[in-house]
Amino acid sequence: MIQRNCVVFTVSAILFLIVFSIPSLIASHENSNKQSFKSSIPQSTIQNLSSTSTGDPKLDSAAFAQKTKKLQIPFIANNGQVDEQVKFYANTFGGTVFVTKDGEIVYALPNNSSESGVRCSKNQEAKCMIQGPRNMSNTTNRLSCILHHEANIPYCTNCLLAGIAKNIGQDTQGVAIKETLVGGRVHEITGNEKAVTKVSYFKGNDTSQWKTNISAYDVVSLGEVYDGIELKLKAYGNNVEKLFCVKPDANPDQIQVKLSGAKDLRVNDEGQLEAETELGMVKFTKPIAYQEIDGNRVAVDVEYDIQNPEVGRRNQKIPNWKSASYNKTRTKKFVHSTHKHNPNSEIQNPKLEYGFKVASYDKTYELIIDPLLASTYLGGSDNDYVYSLALDTSGNVYVTGYTKSSNFPTTSGAYDTSFTGGNYQEHVFVSKLDGGLTSLLASTFLGGSDYNCGYSLALDTSGNVYVTGKTGSSDFPTTSGAYDTSFTGGNYQEHVFVSKLDGGLTSLLASTFLGGSGQDYGYSLALDTSGNVYVTGYTMSSDFPTTSGAYDTSQTGSSDVFVSKLNSGLTSLLASTYLGGSSDDYGYSLALDTSGNVYVTGYTKSSDFPTMSGAYDTSLSQTGSHDVFVSKLNSGLTSLLASTYLGEPGYNEGRSLALDTSGNVYVTGYTMSPLFPTTSGAYDTSYNYGYDVFVSKLDGGLTSLLASTYLGGLSDDYGYSLALDTNGNVYVTGQTESSRFPTTRGAYDTSDSDDSDVFVSKLNSGLTSLLASTYLGGSNDDEGYSLVLDTSGNVYVTGWTSGGGFPTTSGAYDTSYYYGYDVFVSKLDGNLSATSATPTPTPTPTPTPTPTPTTCTDSYEPNNSTSEAYGPLRSGSSYSGKICSDSDVDWFKVNITIEGTISLSLTVPSSNDYELELYDASYAKIVSSTNGSGVSESIDYDATSTGNYYIKIYGFSGSSNTTNSYTLTYTYTSKTTPTPTTTLTPGGHTAALSVSPSEVSLYDSVVVTVVDWDLNTTSSYADTGNVRIKSNSDTTGFYLGLMEMNVNSGSFKGTFVTGDTTDLSASPRKIGVGVNDTITVS
């Protein structure tokens, strides 16, 4: 049953003018900001923030802004130190917010542009000065011109901070915006959640005017401002957050807020509210709505609703706005349909009022919309990259990577708070955040005067942190007694480093080099139960250190994998070996089993990479190919216990591995091979396009491929990290550039941005089902590089993001994008969706049964319109989906490049009546099939026009089924027969469109026609031809894997020369064709 049904709106006002930057704001008021800040937070924090001066005023001010913008700011009670109309105020780092006794909210925002030509007259200055929060002079300053004379606001704002301007010796103008609750009432304003901070003011020698021990509060409540609706305020760094609590049966449509001091009001593409002022744009963040049901947070769709003066109060219905229970897309843009911004109009919205449009919700069903439990930025004023993430036993989060930012955030007492690299150099960083991602608990640099990169970290049982990577710094810090304290490489050479820090990142406990005279890279490390440290990567050094009796003590290729074992104090090299063949070999990930054996993955170009008899695959797929390898060594690194290739002709790279409780090995990475090995019943057995993610499962002896699947969309997708939960389910993260990367209903984000996004996907242990999958990203490039699971099954993901817009959560350590590439750390629940609302029994006199929530999963969603149609479909393939509600409509599309017949078959659940319709490229209905309940539908249509055709499936009279799926089968038969030829024009990365004839005998020719995938057609990438070759000596057929890579048009034809005759019953066998290859079968 529902314990509490209070819908909470969260709206943050970003307190800075968009035309100016935060660093310039802080720089202009550096001295006065520090004074105000001291009155708001403990002195110890001030020292922490100001202890890392660089000597560069711009960098110092930027660092100050970076370190302060995420702090919670208390509201100070007015005990007579400011104007009597003020009840509470908060000195944020973007300006000051006043809460008046009448419940009005006034934002006083400074403009620090040196180019502004506005000046205050003496009359305006005398009339409009307010008691500045950073200059508490005893004057007759008043807020009256702002609070009660709205016509004066555009003039008053230009001299709002005139008193401050005098104090700091420069002209300063600003802007004020006042928010009034239209139709609301405020009876009592109270401070809640008293802060530890006390504020005192001492002015002059009249002690009666001194104000001491003034209380401050983290929350200000305006009480019940509308019937059943309470309003609370919080302040963080640059932001002020409004929370409207809507009680059961209260109507959120009552909420109507009027803005005074703005010229126009509109909603931007990000869903933010923008108020245009005389001096620039002020933004209010996109609102969030949720419910607390049985102790769980359940999200509800909400958007700003701007009143239109021509319509009245506001539109009460938005076309196509569905119930949140069935809404399958994340709305990325919402602008009220009757409010269009006209740049030529002086006044766009004279009333300047906004409210909220809230989607309806079904209380009997689980509502899953917004699962982002926590998310934060982490970075400085240059590029920052992260590669590894780990959790301690308390749930704190450690990340490592490298930064080019001299002002990357560090903490007081950290091992190294100074960026010592020169221009274009990088430093390793190691940072520690709390599990809620709200606080930076510790952070340090680690490196020398050249470039330094951190690639992997792990924690021991005492909470100490081990880090590995590469360094080009001869002065990289090492410790006395370490295994190797000398940098033996020359200029532009790099060595592996392994370092150990305490859990608080205050001390370097141990640190050593590891390498030879060439290039050496450390990419992954792990600890055994005795605390010994295993490291893998690759080396180009012929003298990389190995140990007596090691499996391989000689370099055999230009680059070889290495695996090394050091003691916990990093003073001794216990074991070390090469691993590789005569070509290039690269190690990227390692893991240990319960017996201490070491598994390593990466990729190899060596045809003689060491494998073992009985291994799953003992041969490189093709000369010049990059194949995944998986190898198993004993704990002493003296014996190769098992080793196998994994891949087919093309490019295959293993990037991460993990072991389940049975000792099976899961590997992920990416492949460009359309023939990459998959297993029967796997989630996706068909190559998609470009680079695809793969996830494969091998037995512990590396003799059998237990399961293997593709995972990807219609562009490049890369898998970088995987982890297993306690049920054996597999989580994968990486980067996708695909607009059709597979996502699941109810996932956090089912829509991609215009650029690359992070993906997080969850598969079952058998790799047959995609249990959950989501995008995660902002408006530009985002890349996920590492993930781990906590003891509750929540998923932490880290990577980097560019260009802003990456989703963060209220109260996160850092909610603002800084520059270039920033690190992100995000936390999602195990379902990659909102926390499930599981009913909790509560004793009551009369128990009330609660319907069981139902989840409907359809992997092709969202496909509710022609613009979202899934496809193009593959000829000869079947697709299973669900009609989840009476309003659910599923759209698919096919693309026709030559005349032929479209054949569709729809098998429906026995209890349902579904309709099947076909539409042309102009969305006009062509033909439909409308049989009765439980009867299959079918369509055969002769397509004489090329282009897209659309397929619509929906329930008749609201028929739906959340449990059982329909199956749509699509077949296309071409009416064009290609002309046989005996020439072959190779390509690389698409598959055959048509093959003729389908059965051949001795010396017959088979013609394979492949149209260009990239530019000239949108034919399905998996339209392949099967050719049966009648032969006495070989009864198997052949599947032509002809690929296209760099050719933009035309067809490709190949000839098979066959043997004798008869059997056509065998399964197809694969033949790959690459650039400059020919096909000859005899």
From TrEMBL:
<feature type="domain" description="DUF7948">
    <location>
        <begin position="75"/>
        <end position="311"/>
    </location>
</feature>
<feature type="compositionally biased region" description="Pro residues">
    <location>
        <begin position="840"/>
        <end position="852"/>
    </location>
</feature>
<dbReference type="InterPro" id="IPR057708">
    <property type="entry name" value="DUF7948"/>
</dbReference>
<feature type="region of interest" description="Disordered">
    <location>
        <begin position="835"/>
        <end position="875"/>
    </location>
</feature>
<dbReference type="Pfam" id="PF06739">
    <property type="entry name" value="SBBP"/>
</dbReference>
<dbReference type="InterPro" id="IPR052918">
    <property type="entry name" value="Motility_Chemotaxis_Reg"/>
</dbReference>
<dbReference type="InterPro" id="IPR010620">
    <property type="entry name" value="SBBP_repeat"/>
</dbReference>
<protein>
    <recommendedName>
        <fullName>DUF7948 domain-containing protein</fullName>
    </recommendedName>
</protein>
<feature type="compositionally biased region" description="Polar residues">
    <location>
        <begin position="856"/>
        <end position="868"/>
    </location>
</feature>
<dbReference type="Pfam" id="PF25778">
    <property type="entry name" value="DUF7948"/>
</dbReference>
<dbReference type="InterPro" id="IPR011042">
    <property type="entry name" value="6-blade_b-propeller_TolB-like"/>
</dbReference>
